[in-house]
Amino acid sequence: MRVLVAAKYFKYSAELGRYTDEEEDVSWIRDIQGLDWAYIYNNAAESIGYLSVEHGHWTSQFNSKNVGREQGAYTRFIYDNYEWIVQRDHTLIFTQGNPFYHTGGFIDIVNAISEDTMKSAGYLGLSEDGVRNSFISGVKYELKRCFGIEVPDIMKVTGNGMFMVHSSRIAHYPRESWRKFMETMTTSKLSLQVYTGESTWNHLLGEHFEHAYCHCSPV
């Protein structure tokens, strides 16, 4: 099963240097091949709660508090759907509402990755910028506190928080660990949510396992 999780926000205007009142357009999701379901967390909504289900496009959309940025939406999805995720053979795609800002070839990259590739690789970062070595103390602390894993002082991190992961990688950690991480991503300072959250996934779901990190280049 192929499932996409997207966190939608207001559009950002580089010309104005601020966010606008217009929501991001996520109609591009229809171009993702073999997609069984899409979950959209609408952080640009005024109200909070269940919004709608469009069965024609197999899409569930939820209004959510504008906290935690996409990392908050990702961890909320994992925590709320943990049992469903770990009991099935899933490929999960986690993305921003506008993935093209960081990865122009996002759709082609995702469509080129087969289910067999995901089972083998386990985790694939969806960044055209590749990986870089970085020291982020918040990442080291949160991975130890929430998941009990040690990380080196210098880590390989990606330039954004978009990735594909096999459900077995998520199942490797107990639901309680995901709850702790979700609370960090939705209650901490913005800088921690953005930089610590984005920098965590590569080690948590990639480097920590036996398989070497596999960066997916544009096709």
What keywords describe this structure?
about 220 residues; globular; 8 helices; 8-stranded mixed sheet; single chain; 12 strands; two-stranded antiparallel sheet; alpha/beta
The separation of the N and C termini measures 23 Å
Number of strands: 12
The SS-based structural class is: alpha/beta
Molecular shape: globular
Low-confidence stretches: 46-57, 211-219
Q: Count up the helices.
A: 8
What oligomerization state is this entry in?
single chain
Radius of gyration: 16 Å
What strand order characterises the main sheet? 5-6-4-1-7-11-8-12
Helical content band: 25-40%
Mean pLDDT across the residues is 75
**Fraction in beta strands:** 25-35%
The helix/strand series, from N terminus to C terminus, equals: EEEEEEHHEHHEEHEEHHHE
**Sheet with most strands:** 8 strands, mixed
Give an account of the 3D structure.
This protein has helices at residues 69-80, 82-86, 106-111, 115-121, 137-147, 167-171, 175-187, 190-207, and strands at residues 2-8, 10-13, 18-23, 37-42, 49-54, 59-63, 91-96, 123-125, 131-134, 155-158, 163-166, 214-215. It is α/β, with parallel strands linked by helices and 219 residues long. An eight-stranded mixed beta sheet has the order 5-6-4-1-7-11-8-12, with helices on both faces. Strands 2-3 form a two-stranded antiparallel ribbon. The longest helix is centred in the C-terminal third of the chain and has 18 residues, at 190-207. The radius of gyration is 16 Å and the shape is globular. Mean pLDDT is 75; it is low at 46-57 and 211-219.
